[in-house]
Amino acid sequence: PQAAAQRATPDVGIQLFQLPWSSIADECEATLGPSGFSWVQTSPPNESIARDEWWASYQPVGYDLDSRLGTRDDFADMVMRCDAAGVDVIADAVINHMTGQDAAGTGFAGTPYAHYEYPGLYGADDFHHCGLAQGDDIVDYTSREQVQTCELVNLADLDTSSPHVRETIVTYLDDLLSLGVAGFRIDAAKHMAADDVQAIVGELPEGTRIVSEVIRGGAREPVQPEEYTGFGEVFEFSYPRDLGPQVQSAAFADPVLEGDRPLLVPADKAVVFVDNHDTERGEAAVTYKDGPLYVIANALMLADDYGTPVVFSGYAFTDRDAGAPADAEGAVLPASCEGATGPADSYLDGERTCVQSWTAIAGMLEFRAVASDAARLRGVEAGSAYGFEREGRGVVAVNAGDDDIAIEIPTSMPAGDYCDAITGGRDAVIDSGCRGTTYTVADGVARFSLAPLTAAAIHLGSQR
Ligand code: AAO
């Protein structure tokens, strides 16, 4: 039966938040490549202010690749090793702004700077000073002018309409491309006019992947993600805002399956996620702190048919600002995920969540490889349980509630026994049977008995 389970190469990313380059390289070889992640999104690679908080990475001092996460050589080595493992690198590009500290200082790699003065790169004339609010800060997101010409939390806002600024940014991005990165997350893209972003990325080689961060605001916000889809993809925040609360409340509703989902960008422009480094500290309904519910949310996303999913993996925190564990010089410590198979009951601050290593995630990547070309059929609800079929190729089911639930999902998959990809992971079929739970398809129905807070997934490649 495994031979029938042809595999596509699914487009699935993993955000490895604040993980040093040497560790990402190890992850590419040990886990990301073998599990079938096609790209990894890194934290910003350039020199930033020297502070312990994670968000120091979002205050560029310059574009030398020398940061708390590693040197230029470390970065280049990571890109090569990931590429050899079949994993593209998407770098987080902070190009909307420079630092936000009022006082002058010295960057992580020793470069002196002042607010609005970055020797060799930018001077006072290269920045917006909107004059619309105290301290030039954005206070009103319903004003396009404020959003795009005032400062995001005091960060020196580059005038991205200026030829010099554009050239300087393009030179930086070209440098990263010369090391082999496949593309960029464009940080704070909402705060740059879409025309400016388009002009900048238009200078990059064709095929460079661009994913813009444009947080979907309310209808009253004039700057919408749709403006940024002409030259790349965008993170679609409506997706986690829909999925997360459903999982959290164990009350599922089917998405609209015909065409693109309302209020969401077209599927081929959408990068979707359960949470990211901002939302796990903010609006996300479900994060690593929710353990099994987080597995359920990720399983549903990876089984779904809308957008390109990106899984998030960071470190545990109680203080929102706390950086990843670092040495005395501020360099973030390497971390290994060996032995991590699922969410822990509790975490110490700074402990890596290692989501990329979880058995269920590897299993769902295989599910996606086998089933993602098939239609996503209407879901079935049974109390707090919910599931759906990817027509003829896979079925996923979850129970987000507190009671045992039996759920039956009609399917055109061949009758037989299947090994569960959630508990059995990738290659869940073994000589003696299944690595994890066994489920049966009979009479056109897949039957699952699900304990509270568990998930199940079967696919053509997991038939016994
Ligand atoms: C730090 C300090 C500041 C200090 C500053 C300068 O915390 O106190 O002033 O340094 O010294 C990160 C951290 C910041 C940090 C910054 C620089 O999060 O704390 O500031 O680095 O070190 C907006 C942007 C969006 C941005 C987000 C944080 O549009 O681009 O704010 N995300 C990226 C990164 C992020 C990073 C930066 C940008 C800066 O991912 O990590 O900041 O490089 C509404 C708007 C959104 C807006 C949010 C937050 O969203 O729509 O556009 O995001 O508000 O202000 C509902 C609503 C939704 C709303 C959302 C809020 O869901 O529907 O509209 O809630 O969560």
UniProtKB/TrEMBL annotation:
Catalytic activity: Endohydrolysis of (1->4)-alpha-D-glucosidic linkages in polysaccharides containing three or more (1->4)-alpha-linked D-glucose units
Keywords annotated in UniProt: Calcium, Carbohydrate metabolism, Glycosidase, Hydrolase, Metal-binding, Signal
GO biological process terms, semicolon-separated: carbohydrate metabolic process
Every Glycosyl hydrolase family 13 catalytic domain range: 11-368
Record-level Gene Ontology MF annotations: alpha-amylase activity; metal ion binding
Enzyme Commission number(s): 3.2.1.1
InterPro entries: A-amylase/branching_C, A-amylase_C, Alpha_amylase, GH, GH13_cat_dom, Glyco_hydro_b
Lineage top rank: taxon: Bacteria
Domain Alpha-amylase C-terminal: 383-463
Cell membrane is among the record's keywords: no
Catalytic EC class: hydrolase
Pfam (any one): Alpha-amylase_C
Cofactor: Ca(2+)
Family: Belongs to the glycosyl hydrolase 13 family.
Protein name, entry field: Alpha-amylase
Source organism: Microbacterium allomyrinae
